[in-house]
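Task: fold both queries, return tokens.
Query 1:
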Amino acid sequence: MHTIETIKVNDSDMEVFLYMPEGEGPHPGIILAQHIPGGHTGIENDDFTLKTAERYAENGYAVAVPFIFHWWPKSESMELKREEFRDDWTAQDLTATYDLLAAREDVDGGRIAIIGHCWGGRVSWLGACHLPRLAACVMFYGGRVKLAMGPGTPPAIDLAGDIKCPVAGFFGNEDQNPSPEDVDGMSAALTAAGVSHEFHRYDGAGHAFQSFANPDRFHPEASADAWEKVLVFLGEKLA
């Protein structure tokens, strides 16, 4: 079960789906950044992200899923949203989501992570760059980190020095966005910035290898291994 809260971000209404675990808490929290299909018709039609949120809640985490595409009508094309996507707007969305989650009496604001898949993987990196209070960042096959998105914004990879939390990454070696070379670049940027990180790479797996709704991409062995590893990582960093 989940609830939906609507908050204002620069006078634009943003839906945030909340999944709460059993018990009084205070619970560790997760900001879960949606992957790209949810950007067109809304989070309510993004089965992968919402079922992933449920799964984290079942493991004891309070999960907030912000609809970061609220700046455009839901009926607008995904192509336009990709073209007009702005990192400065998204940083505001993530800050507002963090504040919403951390303000809850049943959430420990000092134990909040950000996680994302695909488009959301890049968003999780971006969130770690802008939210110094985060306890951890997890990115699943997030591409376009080397690109600038929005007027006057630097490439997200250039902000690695602003990341204050440990990072875990999960990537398929058959992926081309990010490619293995892109992953090498992200790791190098984190190393240069002194950011603790662990990257896990899977042979035979491509982009979206955890996407159970996409049989052409789903890689059950890599997905299961990544799920086990991410729970260990969160258990250590959000303890």
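Query 1 returned. Query 2:
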Amino acid sequence: MNYTTAQEAVKLIKSGDSVYFQGSTAVPEIIQEALAQRGEELRDVKIYSAFCVPRGEAPFCKTELKDSFITRSLFLCADQRKWVKDGYGSMIPAFLGEIPFLFRSKQLPLDVAVINCSLPDENGYCSYGISADLAVSAVESAKIIIAQVNKSIPYLYGGALIHISKIDAAVECDIPPVALEFGEPTDIELSIGKYIAEQIPDGATLQIGVGGIPNAVLGGIKNHKHLGLHTEAMTDGVVRLMEEGVIDNTQKKIHPGKSVGSLALGSKRMYEFLHYNKDVEFYDVAYTNDPQLIRQNPKVIAINSALEIDLTGQICADSIGETIFSSVGGQHDFMYGGALSEGGKTFIALPSVTNKGKGKIVPTLSQGAGVVTTRFQTQYVVTEHGIVYLRNLDLAQRAKALISIANPADREELEKAACKRFGYSFLRLK
């Protein structure tokens, strides 16, 4: 492979181009920086990215570059959150699993795809590493491929590989992916985790997210048997269960014996565990997040979070009022696929209050808040105060159930709101 510098590689990008940057904790930061340095000579370069966890804000998110780069996040993270809030960038609402179709169908045409891949194997294939998600479809759809060929990116098996002959410009580097260390779960997270863990049977197939609550759930199922993993994001917690044999994938119907994911977020130790590990496979997010594929596994357990939930079971998970915070990701896909799975269960897990003490169970969603999971899909809702099942309940019954697990200080006001909204159908339940 003929290597070049990042400065030379980004000369392939011209004004008006649409450019995709790979995400997760392996953002190709060297090439981003080199592109930002060309800002004065470029105009209207459209930047697409999703689920990015770099070491700081994206380098093209600067006011002096506002006419050089147009950022359109496909899953908003901290690198562009302030930029979007300030009105310089924007977000395209889309299920993460459907974005590959937008690339492949040219509804979102791409001129350039920029990735951060592993060293090539003996056959000349580089792995997309810890971010297969949108990178597979972006590379298939783009006219030009620029790659950081990175000694520190783990080589993962599955469907996320690119031959060196397909790379138009390669930049050699050795930059470790961002390491994320999650502390011990709090007492609130442990309480929520315990309620969920009690609902998970042996032989279940897990989809689980990132953070304290998922870690608490994983800690609560360390004595379970024959669990499987088919998820969007892979974390340290599931790695521990793989090492201990709790996750053995023997009961799965899709890729039995393999842990399946689309991206990874975690520690250096996790990345080392994934490197050339044949028990793990990473695929295009259009594949991992396909509800009709997800449903084929038995006892799918989908665990997701929320920023707010109203008394009818509407879930807001992407915005704080009118301010976009993240995106839908795979929540809808796994909530739907999990509900269709034989013996499947889906959970929305959230503390009863925010860090500022504001209740998360509310009479109605905040003005401007987006509905990520509709009231028609919500099954289990869990806070530190308990767990309720909404699927078989009418609106008044749902309100009563949700109030029972709300912050105790908020319950009186929630009851008043429920009485006003649902009338006698709620009063008769008291």
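Both queries returned. Flag for query 2: The chain is about 25% helix and 20% strand.
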